[in-house]
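Is this the right way to post structure tokens for a design question? Let me know if I should format differently. Anyway, here goes:
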């Protein structure tokens, strides 16, 4: 199964509507995707209301004090107090049966001590929005292997045309949320795809840097 684990919509900092994203995902031959808007499930719930052949899993992206984390498989948000603390978020997700993925960890400071103590279920090694493929993918692979967790991929699409540029190949014949999550957790995955066009990646990178400056 080809699943894009990292997609943004107009409900956070994406530029595509849910309908646009679902249509492009179908056209590109994906079997499913996770809408991972920042701190909201609105895009996921809208997607669920449509008649679509794709499996759409609940998800969202949380910015913690030890990096960005994709939370998958839970139809509720964590309490606000747990959002910014990496350890608190990881414990909350585990207690609620969800899946955690360290998102684009090659960008930013390495937090090995904290990541090792509270390991994510997987590491996003190929992010289609990475500015440089070889450097960042190699760095991400090193993180995943040091943590000894599965290696996955997502497009991190902020523009609808980028959905499915990179994706996770989940080795299961059962297209259900439970089967996909279990397969990822057990390492029955591979990753495929490519980087999004350079112009798009530069736009996303500029937005990321401006956001980081606002936080500082």
């Amino acid at each position: 199964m080809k699943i894009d684990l990292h997609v943004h919509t107009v409900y956070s900092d994406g530029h595509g509507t849910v309908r646009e994203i679902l249509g492009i995902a179908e056209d590109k031959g994906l079997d499913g995707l996770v809408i991972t808007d920042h701190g909201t499930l609105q895009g996921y719930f809208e997607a669920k209301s449509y008649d679509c052949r794709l499996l759409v899993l609940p998800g969202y992206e949380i910015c913690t004090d030890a990096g960005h984390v994709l939370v998958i498989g839970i139809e509720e948000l964590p309490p606000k107090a747990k959002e910014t603390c990496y350890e608190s978020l990881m414990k909350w997700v585990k207690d609620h049966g969800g899946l955690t993925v360290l998102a684009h960890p090659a960008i930013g400071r390495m937090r090995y001590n904290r990541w090792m103590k509270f390991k994510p279920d997987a590491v996003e090694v190929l992010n289609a929005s990475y500015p440089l493929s070889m450097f960042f993918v190699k760095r991400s692979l090193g993180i995943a292997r040091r943590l000894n967790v599965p290696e996955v991929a997502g497009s991190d699409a902020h523009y609808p045309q980028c959905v499915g540029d990179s994706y996770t190949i989940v080795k299961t014949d059962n297209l259900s949320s439970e089967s996909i999550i279990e397969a990822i957790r057990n390492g029955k995955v591979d990753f495929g795809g490519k980087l999004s066009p350079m112009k798009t990646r530069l736009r996303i990178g500029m937005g990321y840097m401006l956001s980081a400056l606002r936080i500082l």
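Format looks fine. Someone answered above. Worth noting: The two ends are 40 Å apart (CA to CA). Strands lie at 2-7, 32-35, 55-57, 59-64, 67-72, 99-102, 122-127, 151-154, 166-170, 189-193.
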